[in-house]
Amino acid sequence: MNTASPAIAIRNRLQEQKTLALENYRQHRSRPDSLLTALRKHTDQAMKELAASFPLPAAATLCAVGGYGRGELFPYSDIDLLILLQQPPTNDEKALLERFVSALWDLGLDIGHSVRTIDECLVESAADITIETGLLELRYILGNRKLVSTLDKKFREQLNPQDFFLAKQLELQQRYARYNETPYSLEPNCKESPGGLRDLQTIQWISRAAGLSGKWRDLVSHDMMTRDEAAKCAKAEQAFKRLRIDLHLLAGKRDDRLMFHNQPLLAEVYRIKATDTRRPGEILMQRYYWAARIVYLMNHIMMQSFREYFFPVSDCSVAIDEDFCRVGQQLDLVADDAFERKPQLLLKAFLVLQQHPEVNDMSAKLQRQIWSSRHRIDAQFRRNPVNKWLFLQILQQPTGIVHSFRRMTMLSILPQYIPVFRKIVGQMQHDLFHVYTVDQHTLMVIRNIRRFAMPEHAQEYPLASRLIADMDQHWLLYVAALFHDIAKGRGGNHSKLGAADVRKFARDHNLDPADRELVEFLVEHHLTMSSFAQKRDLSEPSVIQEFADIVRTERRLTALYLLTVADIRGTSPKVWNAWKGKLLEDLYHYTLTALGSNVFDRQSVLTQRKNDAIALVRFSGISDQDRDRFWSTLDVAYFLRHEARDIAWHTRLLYRMLPQVGAQVRARPTENNEGIQVMVYTSDRPDLFEQICSYFYEQRIDILDARIHTTRQGYALDSFVVDSAAIDADIRSNVPLIEHGLRNRLNEPLPAQNEPLALKSNRYVVGANVRRSRTFPLVPLIELLPDENSQYWRLSIAAMDSPGILYALANTFKRHQINLQMAKVMTLGDRVEDIFILGGSALDNPRIQMQFKRDLLTAINNLTAQK
């Protein structure tokens, strides 16, 4: 039988009703529940009308489960149905069921259905927590109502609340892991992410399993939740429902993610206006994060409350001091009115937790009391010397610092105690390399500093671990970390504004003058070391001396190095790599030498580097005569720009190859085995760098560093450090592949053309990074200035990262007859900040300079337009 014909009228009527309900919602911005209920009722009615034409078997019952069973239907949500039977269906009944389900699809409904008997429901629910959860929200639609009552009775008799709680707790942990354990994802899922709707639903499901209704007021009446908590949960629930509805309407499909391109559109829906320093989308997301943080906290407290409810521990408490006690392994207050009488205990609670390893968490009651008492931290509280001492004590403890600050942030104690910190909670960063909000990035930096001091992590960063072990009062690094980005989002120089904030904090907390000066220096210069290491020529002694003049002392140098490594590591898992680590270590050691020496100039560096290289070459059996013959082809710039280890490697490979026919390519793993060092030796020519870049681009290999040199005999002696996912997987097997492939490329003529070869826009999968760069584009910045010695030109380029960008720039260099002397390639997530040292008489002409910069901008824009 054709099921489509009778369903057409029902489908059209349902679509009209849905359209009218959505239009009414858009115009009047009615309560979310009103829309969800209306959509559910219209759908229920359509199914009942459909059943009149396509009846179910006489003994069958149609039930709703999942969100639809809860009485909610979002605009594009799927519909979960259970067709309940007393007995397994006969063949005739199967035919009726198939006709009915087919007719449901003809209505245009996105359904998921199951056909089960009561016994099958009980067996399946005992084995699958998802089915068990669905039966908690079973709702009758049509058919034999007695079947539903029978199933509900038997299901309740079978349900074990304790086992259900444990299963939901495991399910929650697995869900959190899928979303990186944080509500602060830059593109959160308002339903599934930590702090989203699913957290609230988990509380309701567990309360239903415990025999309650699942309504917030019912939890209050049973002393499972305070009125304030219930009000905040109810408010967040309505806000997230509205957000989910609007996401569906924007996308025109089921999509619960706040993707970058939707954020400004949602801000427009909510009529959020831009400020002088913040986009509407940023304000929207900060509001979302604040709501998600509350839900995340409520879920954490309620899950702990449920555990205490289902698995009560002995009421016996062990006194820790006059204010705190231990109940089981949890910290609790001796007296319920303690915070009212002694507000300083709001800080002391975290200190006690750090000092007593036998206590692994705060009780749910204590967390509630802290959160509800957070407003006691006011200006008078912050002026109290006892509270200042307690806060510094928390910072100075040998353990528990990371957990304490995470708890203090979650419970709103840290934003209350340091009011300027409140402004960065949930503050997004659209610089294309931070993947955390400012407050979460700050906590990540604190975590990284703490890891430097932990013996079990010493192998990760040996230099950092050694330095922090020898550093006096390394807790000052935590202070600097707290304030290093605290002024973001205000406009102006956040480093200088943050330095003013930390100066006030240090003065208010009576830090010693030397310590005050250190933390202020660290905050003001927290970007300086990274900038020098990744953008300046570290082979130039004047650069090292300039940096040494900034840091001035070994203590400041060491502290800045530690903060810089922790900061970069805390931006994104993609930003840090071993090459950046090596650059920072090199700058640290060079500067340490400069600080400890009265003489640090080009000649002293040159002499030391040659002596070190001579010692390394001597072990290879190369005579002094052969060595000097090869070295005579190299100028001072070569020796200054290469380390002794690299000079010795080049010497061993090339001392017999003078003169040379054809390109020679050699490669080896880098010192830390996290990349490959490539040497190219061939007759110099204008298109050489472009050819090399084209090969690496086609092989999906990233150039991290390039040092370009031409010998006195006219040969190119170029060095590169490269990396890729394939190289990381198997470094040693990639060495001969690169040697062979690049050698063949360089021995082939480049096609005659002025434009780069066609770049493959599909080289990488389009995802969140591309959405982010499209929504919050970075305007390319090009700066061309004479270098430190006015011998060359220093080209700085900041732009969105795109496949082939270095290749496109190399083509532009060639077309303008620009000679590349050195390249420092810095990739920060989805942003590149590259430095090139250039030569060529053409750059002395201002008109040619201007055209050169225009062509560079065109090349960059052509690439980013493909994304």
Question: Strand portion, in percent?
Answer: 5-15%
CATH topology assignment of the largest domain: Alpha-Beta Plaits
Contiguous runs where pLDDT drops below 50 for at least 5 residues = 761-766
Overall pLDDT metric: 89
Number of strands: 17
The name of the CATH architecture of the largest domain is 2-Layer Sandwich
**Main β-sheet description:** 9 strands, antiparallel
- What's the end-to-end separation, in Å? 50 Å
- CATH level-four homologous superfamily name of the largest domain: ACT domain
Number of domains: 5
Distinctive features:
single chain; 867 residues; alpha+beta; Beta Polymerase, domain 2; Four Helix Bundle (Hemerythrin (Met), subunit A); 5 domains; nine-stranded antiparallel β-sheet; four-stranded mixed β-sheet; 40 helices; 17 strands; 56% helix
